[in-house]
Recover the amino acids of this structure.
């Protein structure tokens, strides 16, 4: 474009004079731009087009392309494609494209990315990033924060939701302030997200609080042991069921609400300590 790429008035004038006439004829315009070099401490996917922000403001859809693996012997290059903006329709999850450079032509083949590779993609929802990171194996919240580039608090909130939906479960391993989690073997739960189910979930959370608040109960004792890493989740859930006269075969249905109540108690203890 002519003019100063950093000046919004020049970018707007370029769009009005050269892009708008095509749009008025229902012609889609593809603009290829470049972005600044990645500086130490920066992430490629956080970069935007070089110049005025109006370059992306005036675009209806923005896609970032990042070079990936290059196989010189095979003559191929894999690029990462990120859909960063859309004014119409839904955003597409990041995917890869393998480019094959052949005599007189270039072939392009779309490739779905492995789940674990999506854990650091900022355009993917936080809870999905946590789920993708757990595809690598069990992890503690601080490890998930490191592998997803999310704040630890955000990871904990995601885990609460994923536990409730039956997507993640505790492994029984603990450290001082947190519990290790993994993807559930079934990734299903009796909690389906309806209003009735949500009411039942909250009721069980409150019943867990009631059991914990009974100082001489087995649930109160096991809660203290669990928070110190001296008891596993099964013992804790069973003690809540016993307090309310429920059979142990309801343990899986009660696991998520009981553990949510535990996290609330843990948070209260951390706040009191600070």
């Amino acid at each position: 474009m002519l003019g100063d790429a950093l000046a919004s008035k020049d970018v707007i004038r370029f769009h009005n004079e050269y892009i708008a006439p095509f749009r008025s004829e229902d012609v889609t315009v593809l603009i290829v731009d470049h972005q600044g070099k990645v500086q130490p401490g920066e992430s490629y996917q956080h970069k935007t087009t070089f110049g005025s922000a109006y370059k992306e403001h005036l675009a209806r859809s923005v896609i970032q392309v990042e070079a990936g693996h290059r196989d010189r012997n095979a003559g191929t290059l894999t690029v990462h494609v990120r859909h960063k903006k859309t004014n119409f329709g839904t955003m597409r999850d990041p995917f890869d494209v393998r480019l094959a450079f052949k005599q007189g032509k270039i072939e392009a083949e779309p490739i779905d990315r492995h789940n674990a590779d999506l854990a650091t993609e900022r355009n993917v929802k936080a809870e999905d990033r946590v789920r993708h990171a757990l595809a690598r194996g069990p992890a503690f919240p601080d490890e998930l924060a490191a592998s997803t580039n999310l704040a630890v608090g955000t990871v904990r909130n995601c885990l609460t939701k994923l536990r409730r939906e039956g997507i993640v479960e505790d492994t029984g391993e603990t450290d001082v302030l947190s519990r290790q989690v993994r993807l559930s073997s079934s990734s299903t739960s009796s909690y389906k997200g309806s209003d009735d189910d949500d009411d039942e979930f909250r009721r069980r959370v409150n019943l867990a609080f009631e059991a914990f608040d009974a100082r001489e109960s087995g649930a109160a004792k096991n809660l203290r042991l669990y928070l110190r890493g001296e008891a596993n989740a099964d013992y804790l859930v069973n003690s809540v069921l016993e307090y309310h006269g429920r059979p142990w075969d309801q343990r899986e249905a009660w696991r998520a609400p009981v553990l949510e109540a535990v996290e609330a108690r843990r948070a209260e203890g951390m706040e009191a300590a600070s």
